[in-house]
């Protein structure tokens, strides 16, 4: 019995995280991690600031919930209204814009709803609804989902019916679903370009200003959540808005395409 | 595929494989420490609420891991009652969730096995005037080979579990990523080949652990039994 | 340790589901030697032994010992008709009752080895109890019962289904134990065994104790027609 307890204690100690570098927990959206940008930035952050950034890759909705509960030190999200609310509620000290990419409308390459000929993103969605072609929605309250709902509203359409499929899943799972069912879907460009299972789907519509996707950094408020590592969060903010970050973000390409554009301004 | 794995994942793959084993083996041992005596206790005791506890255990065996994950998450969140411990998104949180998932399974299987052994031992242990603790200890010790099945079932449920540890662990690279959450991640990236390769490693691991323990207990059987 | 005997049974009765299995029986167990419980199948021998040992709940009457509860239970042992074998080696099986009483592992093992040798299992110490032959299992059960040096030993048909050799060995072990001061109460339906071992005989029929008599008296002049019929080999209906 004593032996068993000993082994347990040993394993517990073994399973405990090693505390070498100073760590910072940041909730980020799937598009940031799945695109591969995080694989470029994290080692650089570690080298420049000594910070070990632990990423919790979740939808924007959950990321902001984590921040509100004080379970992370900072958030990188892309849903303006919800971010402003987080600051207004006092859970984050402020909102700092870092970079942007854009959303694209993806669908079957033969484009049965002919959205490629649409003038605006809202118009493209209206064509999909008009043709009752399958449309895959994230349905998970993520930044992408919020963006999609805003576009439907702009089009004056309440999406419902058999053609509208809310999957309630992450970007990758939703893309897999769209590929398998030949549906249209809204995705951020970065995730789509780095996605490994494109099938017959292709980018059919992009470039509308309404598809602009701003990423912002929000440090969790230490007054509300005293245990957060505010100093580290401040150092990370400094790095994310630095010229070094600009070079890495603007220089990140997949298949020759630049995915993110740095647009942080000085203090 | 194998070449890609060897080149790109080598060190990381070993790390998440070891972490998978650490989390689930720790959880299985703790769950066994609770579940085996609990199963034996239910086998040797007769009291009115016993049937309800057994029914409850059987129901808890089918507990959805996602629900367990959510509950542990809420408890360990900084906003929750145990938030001050700062355990959320650590391997410890994953162990806690898995202990909750595995314990009813181990206790229930142990109870089945212990009931048969108790039917056999009952008269002897009562005649020898063994205390309840001694009865439980005797059943657990003498039934240890049968109880291995319970532990392996617990390990099997834990090692392949993704719902709970994804929520309470957060799938953090270099910290809480294990085989199952890595599979979920790669599936999300559309990299089915890598996800599948990880899946095969997971299956291989489960089979290897089962075979290894089976052979170990067999050799012991050769010398002792 | 003080003696737990005499054991006094006052009108004990056992009923299960409204059916009378035993009694009312009154009897006093005292002195030394071997008492043999006889009677046809279903006459209540097993129930009677279990009731005295305290592992069968009595429905009526009283059981009184000369000592208090913990000593009473520690000072007696029971050997079941179908020996209960633990999933342990012969050595650990015999040591088990001592381990329950807090005897150290080393002491318990050396006592077990001594008893294994005495019952003829000295060469089988490391063998699993489950794989022993029928006779060896009963010898193991006997060693396990005697290792605690009980004042009182109950045996329920210990030689049923055993061959002559094993029966002979077990009878010798019992006689030795008796000489060493253990009071023995044992059931059998083997009249020859009763003749060889008994100091006195208890004859049970239909749950009632019909005769208690010294061996010679019972075998030569049974006091009841049922006793006489049983000795003649008639079926008692």
From TrEMBL, chain A:
Entry annotated with the keyword tRNA-binding: no
The keyword Methyltransferase is assigned to this record: no
UniProt keyword list: Signal
Record-linked Pfam families: PBP_like_2 (PF12849)
SUPFAM superfamilies in UniProt: Periplasmic binding protein-like II (SSF53850)
Residues in the signal sequence: 1-21
InterPro entries for the chain: ABC-Tungstate_binding, PBP_domain
Taxonomy, superkingdom: Bacteria
Residue runs in coiled coils: none
Domain spans labelled PBP: 25-243
Protein's name according to its UniProt entry: Tungstate transport system substrate-binding protein
Species this protein is from: Roseinatronobacter thiooxidans
TrEMBL record, chain B:
UniProt keywords, alphabetically: Membrane, Transmembrane, Transmembrane helix
First and last residue of the signal peptide: none
Domain of life, per lineage: Bacteria
Subcellular location: Cell membrane
Topology with respect to the bilayer: Multi-pass membrane protein
CC annotations in GO: plasma membrane
Record-level GO BP terms: transmembrane transport
Transmembrane segments: 20-44, 56-76, 82-107, 154-172, 192-213
Keyword check for Zinc-finger: no
Domain ABC transmembrane type-1 span(s) in chain numbering: 17-213
InterPro entries assigned: ABC_perm_TupB-like (IPR049783), MetI-like (IPR000515), MetI-like_sf (IPR035906)
Keyword Transmembrane helix carried by entry: yes
Name the UniProt record assigns to this protein: Tungstate transport system permease protein
Native organism: Roseinatronobacter thiooxidans
UniProtKB/TrEMBL annotation, chain C:
PROSITE patterns listed in its UniProt record: ABC_TRANSPORTER_1 (PS00211), ABC_TRANSPORTER_2 (PS50893)
Domain called ABC transporter: residue spans: 7-231
Keyword Nucleotide-binding: yes
Membrane-related topology note: Peripheral membrane protein
A Pfam family of this chain: ABC_tran
Endpoints of the signal sequence: none
Localization per Swiss-Prot or TrEMBL: Cell membrane
GO molecular function: ATP binding; ATP hydrolysis activity
Keyword Membrane recorded: yes
GO terms under cellular component: plasma membrane
Transmembrane segments: none
Main location: membrane
Protein keywords: ATP-binding, Cell membrane, Membrane, Nucleotide-binding, Transport
Stated family: Belongs to the ABC transporter superfamily.
PANTHER family linked to this entry: AMINO ACID IMPORT ATP-BINDING PROTEIN (PTHR43166), GLUTAMATE_ASPARTATE IMPORT ATP-BINDING PROTEIN GLTL (PTHR43166:SF9)
Name of the protein in question: Tungstate transport system ATP-binding protein
Organism taxonomic ancestry: Bacteria, Pseudomonadati, Pseudomonadota, Alphaproteobacteria, Rhodobacterales
């Amino acid at each position: 019995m004593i032996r068993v307890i000993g082994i347990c204690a040993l394993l517990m100690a073994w399973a405990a995280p090693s505390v070498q570098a100073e760590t910072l927990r940041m909730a980020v959206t799937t598009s940031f991690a799945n695109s591969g940008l995080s694989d470029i930035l994290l080692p650089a952050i570690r080298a420049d600031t000594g910070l070990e950034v632990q990423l919790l890759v979740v939808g924007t909705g959950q990321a902001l919930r984590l921040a509100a509960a004080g379970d992370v030190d900072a958030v990188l999200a892309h849903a303006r209204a919800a971010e402003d609310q987080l600051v207004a509620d006092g859970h984050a000290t402020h909102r700092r814009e870092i970079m942007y990419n854009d959303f694209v409308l993806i669908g079957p390459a033969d484009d049965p709803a002919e959205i490629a000929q649409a003038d605006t993103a809202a118009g493209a969605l209206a064509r999909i609804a008009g043709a009752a072609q399958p449309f895959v929605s994230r349905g998970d309250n993520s930044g992408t989902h919020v963006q999609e709902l805003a576009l439907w509203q702009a089009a004056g359409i309440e999406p419902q019916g058999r053609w509208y499929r809310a999957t309630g899943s992450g970007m990758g799972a939703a893309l897999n679903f769209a590929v398998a069912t030949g549906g249209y879907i809204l995705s951020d460009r970065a995730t789509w370009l780095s996605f490994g299972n494109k099938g017959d789907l292709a980018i059919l519509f992009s470039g509308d200003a309404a598809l602009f996707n701003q990423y912002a950094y929000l440090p969790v408020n230490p007054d509300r959540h005293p245990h957060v590592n505010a100093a580290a969060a401040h150092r990370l903010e400094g790095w994310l808005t630095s010229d070094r970050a600009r070079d890495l973000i603007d220089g990140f390409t997949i298949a020759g395409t630049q995915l993110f554009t740095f647009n942080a301004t000085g203090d | 595929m194998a070449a890609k794995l060897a080149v790109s994942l080598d060190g990381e793959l070993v790390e998440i494989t070891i972490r998978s084993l650490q989390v689930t083996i720790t959880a299985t041992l703790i769950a066994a420490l609770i579940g085996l005596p609990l199963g034996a206790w239910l086998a040797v005791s007769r009291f009115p609420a016993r049937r309800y506890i057994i029914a409850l255990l059987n129901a808890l065996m089918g507990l959805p891991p996602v629900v367990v994950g959510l509950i542990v998450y809420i408890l360990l969140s900084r906003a929750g009652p145990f938030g001050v411990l700062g355990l959320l998104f650590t391997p410890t949180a994953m162990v806690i969730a898995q202990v909750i998932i595995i314990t009813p399974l181990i206790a229930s299987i142990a109870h089945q096995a212990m009931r048969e052994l108790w039917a056999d031992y009952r008269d002897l242990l009562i005649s020898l005037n063994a205390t309840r603790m001694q009865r439980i200890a005797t059943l657990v010790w003498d039934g240890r080979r049968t109880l291995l099945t319970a532990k392996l079932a617990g390990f099997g449920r834990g090692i392949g579990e993704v719902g709970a540890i994804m929520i309470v662990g957060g799938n953090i690279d270099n910290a809480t990523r294990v085989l199952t959450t890595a599979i979920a991640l790669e599936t999300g990236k559309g990299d089915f080949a890598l996800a599948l390769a990880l899946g095969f490693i997971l299956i291989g691991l489960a089979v290897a652990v089962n075979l290894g323990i089976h052979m170990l207990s067999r050799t012991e059987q050769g010398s002792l039994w | 340790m003080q003696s737990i005997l005499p054991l006094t049974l006052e009108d004990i009765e056992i009923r299960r589901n409204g059916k009378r299995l035993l009694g009312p029986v009154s009897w006093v167990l005292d002195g030394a030697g071997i008492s043999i419980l006889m009677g046809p199948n279903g006459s209540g021998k097993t129930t009677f032994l279990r009731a005295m040992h305290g592992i069968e709940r009595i429905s009526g009457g009283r059981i009184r010992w000369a000592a208090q509860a913990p000593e009473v239970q520690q000072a007696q042992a029971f050997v079941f008709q179908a020996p209960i074998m633990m999933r342990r080696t012969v050595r650990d099986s015999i040591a088990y009752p001592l381990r329950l009483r807090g005897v150290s592992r080393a002491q318990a093992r050396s006592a077990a080895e001594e008893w294994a040798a005495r019952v003829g299992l000295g060469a089988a110490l490391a063998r699993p109890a489950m794989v022993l032959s029928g006779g060896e299992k009963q010898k193991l059960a006997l060693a396990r019962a005697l290792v605690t040096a009980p004042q009182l030993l109950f045996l329920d048909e210990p030689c049923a289904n055993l061959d002559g050799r094993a029966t002979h060995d077990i009878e010798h072990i019992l006689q030795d134990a008796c000489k060493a001061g253990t009071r023995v109460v044992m059931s059998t339906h083997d009249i020859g065994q009763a003749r060889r071992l008994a100091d006195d005989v208890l004859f049970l029929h239909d749950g009632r104790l019909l005769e208690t008599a010294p061996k010679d008296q019972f075998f030569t002049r049974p006091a009841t027609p049922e006793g006489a019929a049983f000795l003649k080999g008639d079926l008692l209906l």
